[in-house]
Input
Amino acid sequence: MKKEALERQKEKLLKEAKEQQLLQMNKGVNVPIIWVLGGPGCGKGTQCAKIVEKYNFTHLSSGDLLRAEVASGSEKGKELAAIMKEGKLVSNEAVLLLLECAIKKAAASSKGFLIDGYPREKDQGAAFEKQISPADLILFFDCADQTLVDRILARAAASKEVRADDNEETLKTRIATFRSNTNDILAQYTEKTAVINAERAVDEIFADVVSAIDGVLAKK
Output
């Protein structure tokens, strides 16, 4: 029993040390952290590229980080590859760890972080802010559902690669799920959210993006 108590105490101390380390890291994140959200086909990829060009922010996508880790051939990459091969979802803890490592790696030189397509659910947002750092701004690129469907179908028609889920019924289901989850996220962060009308010309959209980011930078 005494040995078990010592083990529990050791685990508690290790956990507290990790939390303190994360707290110190968060204090050092003095640049903006921006979540970039939008349905498939909303054009957020284009806007992220323009943000990076103008502000030299670090663009992080959870999907890209997962693929890079798998491609690295590391032990963690092999574990992730096995999970994805079985068609299972990678745990939020694993995704958060990748994001945390990427942010820590770039923190000294980065002028800001764009977290692209994350969080996907409200619990993920809370976990990110607790484990990594609070978000300063949420950019939500808003389009009507039919606009999203039309854009994806047009993109699919022009592509040589045919995806099984690029059909109207499947797309509508994906978009409905996205819409439900995103509404829950945005409801938690109304004061931090900039809703951008993404059914306009690229430069018109970007003008609103610049206004939102400049407002955050003025407070940093």
